[in-house]
Amino acid sequence: MIGVFDSGFGGLTILQNLKKVMPSYDFLYLGDNARAPYGSRSFETIYRYTLQAVRELFGRGCPLVILACNTASARALRSIQQDVLPYEFPDKRVLGIIRPTTEEIGRYSKTGHIGIFATSGTVSSNSYGIEIRNFFPDLKVTQHACPMWVPLVEYGECGTEGAAFFVKKDVDALLAEDPLIDTVLLACTHYPLLETEIRTALPPQVRLVFQGDIVANKTLDYLRRHPEMDERLSKGGKTTYLTSDTAKFFEKGAFLFGIEGISAESVVL
Ligand code: DGL
Fold first, then answer.
1. 166 within ligand 1 shell (Cβ under 6 A)
2. CA–CA distance, 243 with 161 (Å, rounded to integer)
3. How far is CA 145 from CA 93, 161, 173, 207, 238, in A?
4. pLDDT tens per residue, range 77-87
5. CATH ID of 99-210, from 3.40.50.1860, 3.40.50.150, 3.65.10.10, 3.40.190.10
6. Residues 28, 33, 37, 39, Cα dihedral to 10°
């Protein structure tokens, strides 16, 4: 199985893209719902929580884990890859969703100016800024944290006037900082659910980029380049769901993210 980890429900937006692009693979999704959101937590806490989740997924037979959470990818991925895997799990891999996104994002912009919406944790880590510089050194990147957006999604406020108000406020702030932005990346798993509000607030010429599709295609590409890993992954088209909260909480909440009729298992991390 491919392990897919997120702080809560948001990674389901990435999982849906993975399942679309890789329908024959088996996935084991783990949401740390009991401790979500991660967005404004400290580096140390995000690292500790993420490592616990990765250990759980490894222990359940996933040789490959995708951190389908921008905050966890920004705060925990490098340390896990460098300080843990080589010593404890040399035959296992953990991938994030920032690197694959940054490999592509520069191709979308004509003005060479892009904007990024993300959680405070992701923005303050500057992981996007650092990674993008490796692939598109001339790209002008403006990042803006939107701490209201995750709660708006989680409390079922998408489509309301309140959501439109807060989204417009952040969109206006980003564009005021750099009016030449022609491409905006949604670098948080929850934000695609606010697509209508974001599109309404953005000028029509600004392109909106979702990372789920990019991540799914890059994962498939990774497995083509690493057949030794691909061979170890089961392929029955099945998805299993784990949560650190109660199964009932997860089954009900997943509905907001377009996943219905599932049964989840509760785990202690
Ligand atoms: N999954 C997180 C991300 O993509 C958003 C939710 C959270 O803050 O935990 O950054």
1. no
2. 31
3. 29, 20, 10, 19, 35
4. 999 999 999 99
5. 3.40.50.1860
6. -20
pTM of the complete model: 0.95
- Please report the pLDDT score of residue 40 as a whole number: 84
Catalytic residues: 69, 188
CA pair distance 117, 221, nearest whole angstrom: 26
Answer whether 41 contacts ligand 1 (Cβ < 6 A): no
Contacts of 119 (CB under 8 A, 6+ apart): 37, 38, 39, 40, 70, 71, 145, 146, 147, 150, 188
H-run or E-run covering 239: strand 239-243
Q: In what order do the strands lie in the sheet with 140-145?
A: 140-145, 113-118, 183-186, 207-210
Give the integer Cα–Cα distance in Å for 51 and 230: 23
Q: Which CATH fold topology does 2-97+213-266 show?
A: Rossmann fold (3.40.50)
Closest atom of ligand 1 to CA, residue 97: 4
